[in-house]
Amino acid sequence: MWIRRASDIASSEITPESVYRNRREFLKAAGLLASASVAALSGTTMLSKASQSGPYDTTETVTPYAYATSYNNYYEFGTDKEDPAIYAVNFKPRPWKVSVEGLVKKPAVYDLDDLIKGFTLEDRIYRMRCVEGWSMVIPWHGFPLAALIKRLEPAASAQYVEFTTIHSPDQMRGQQSRLLSGGLEWPYVEGLRLDESLNPLTLIATGIYAKPLPNQNGAPWRLVAPWKYGFKGIKAIVRIRFVDKQPVTSWMKAWPKAYGFYSNVNPSVDHPNHSQAHERRLGEPWSLFRGDAPRPTLMFNGYADRVGAMYAGMDLRRNY
User: Fold this and answer.
1) Among 231, 229, 249, CA closest to 241
2) Inter-residue contact 283 to 136 (CB < 8 Å)
3) Which long-range contacts (CB under 8 A, 24 or more apart) does 269-274 make?
4) 189's torsion region: left (phi>0), alpha (psi -120 to 50) or beta?
5) Which of 8, 74, 111, 197 is 20 to 30 A from 34 via CA?
6) Domain annotation covers residue 316
7) Residue 198 Cα to chain centre, angstroms
8) Which residues, other chains included, contact 211 with Cβ-Cβ below 8 Å and sequence gap of 6+?
9) Is residue 1 part of a domain?
10) For residue 285, what are the domain limits?
11) DSSP per residue over 108-174, as a string?
């Protein structure tokens, strides 16, 4: 049996062309017209914009909830953008255990609710950029990853934080076959440098649009690093490991030429299959998806003033 590797998947397969042509057709394909009207979508956007007040919020128009919860990359449930919303319905995000391991003072297996008890939850509205050329603006609800790291007390020798997603083939169809997962190996692994993890922008999200995090968006909790491409935002985390060497992450292993460890949004570093210089914002008027008015990609996704210093002196084309 021939198994497609991640590098064998054409960009046209990863991002359906139809989404860039007709907004209504996208909504129909995602099964949204039966449950949400255009007026309802607009209302969600207006409500989210009205809540903007924090120091980290973008002032851009928020992507309608229906888009953010139906057009997702979550290969554990399949490679099509609509697969997560369809196949994650019966995923069980509670009860949830988290193993803390490695160079840390408090290694243990924790109940998630005990692990995060007492944290001050915040609302953040972030730009989010996918490596495939599409983007969203999403209101997240959660707490800074730095708060959790402080509670766990990593050793002075810890330089990186490695995260692992749950491995549950009985709940995640994409984990049942590499044909259904784009060739990725399971469980999914991601990582950050320790200073990236401690950056005030780095969030652990437990909610979205003032609602609990849906299964297809990473319930019960997920990582959000808005200056990086979206695949860095690992979902359904069950293991956190503090290490002194750079982790080998899942997409690095599957296709190192395309997906480096850092994966910072950078318009001057192209994906092997396409340019990263422009992006398409889901939820904008459909005429923009025809290429009439391409949106330029911002360095570090527009967060250069908050994260650029971490990469001073680095060759960001080599360290992509």
Assistant:
1) 249
2) yes
3) 269/316, 269/317, 269/320, 271/11, 271/131, 271/132, 273/10, 273/11, 274/11, 274/132, 274/133
4) beta
5) 74
6) no
7) 18
8) none
9) no
10) 6-311
11) EEEEHHHHTTTPPPEEEEEEEE-TTSEEEEEEEEEEEHHHHHHHH-B-TT--EEEEEE---TTT-GG
CATH of the domain at 229: 3.90.420.10
How much is the pTM? 0.84
Residue 183: what pLDDT?
A: 78
Span 113-134, average pLDDT = 96
Side-chain-side CA neighbours of 192 within 13 Å: the count stands at 27
The tally of domains found in the chain comes to: 1
* Strand partners of residue 205: 142, 222
The DSSP H or E segment spanning 242 is strand 237-243
Query: Confidence class of residue 290 from pLDDT cuts 50, 70 and 90?
Result: low
The reply to whether 121 falls in a domain is: yes
SS3 readout for 257-293: CCCCCCCECCCCCCECCECCCEEEECCCCHHHHHCCC
C-alpha closest to that of 243 among 146, 158, 155, 165:
158
